[in-house]
Amino acid sequence: QNWYLIDPSKGIIEDNMGIMTTFTGTKDEEWFYLVPLFVELAAAPGLVAMLEIYKSMENDNYIAIEASFRNMQSSIEKMIAAVNRMYEHCKPDVFYQQIRPYQAGSMGLDAFPDGLMYEGVDTI
């Protein structure tokens, strides 16, 4: 886990989460890691709704099935909205130039044409 609650008394909500460790120390990188957490938060009610659909199908409770599908729809819409928040604080050029190299590994980069060699570390 690479995130923390800014104020634990507020619980897990979007505006109450921070990132512990980044490569660049930029707000852009922190936001790049926060947005997927926001997507997961939005997805959780959809997962509950899927279980409710399954249970309701066993009882032929079509009203509950419809309500659960609407909850799933709402969850998916919130997930899309969360993904679309990426551009609020993560500029594409900062991501591409500063963050992506850490995510892409080291092979083939101009700075490390032969990759990085970690000495004293067991290979995977």
How is the topology of this model organized?
Elements: E1 3-5, E2 17-19, H1 27-58, H2 62-83, H3 86-89, H4 92-104, E3 107-109, E4 112-114
- Tell me the overall shape: elongated
- Give the oligomeric state of the chains in this entry, treating copies of one chain as homo and distinct chains as hetero: single chain
Helix/sheet category: mainly alpha
Can you count the beta strands?
4
Helix content: 55-70%
- Arithmetic mean of pLDDT: 92
Discrete helix count: 4
Query: How far apart, in Å, are the first and last alpha carbons?
Result: 21 Å
Give a description of the structure.
It is built from four helices and four strands; from the N terminus they run ββααααββ. The mean pLDDT is 92. It has 124 residues and is mostly helical. The strands form two sheets. The protein has a two-stranded antiparallel ribbon. A two-stranded antiparallel sheet has the order 3-4. 57% of the residues lie in helices and 10% in strands. The two termini are 21 Å apart. Helix 1 runs antiparallel to helix 2.
Give a brief rundown of this model.
The protein has helices at 27-58, 62-83, 86-89, 92-104, and strands spanning 3-5, 17-19, 107-109, 112-114. It is mainly alpha-helical and 124 residues long. The strands form 2 sheets. The chain has a two-stranded antiparallel ribbon with strand order 1-2.
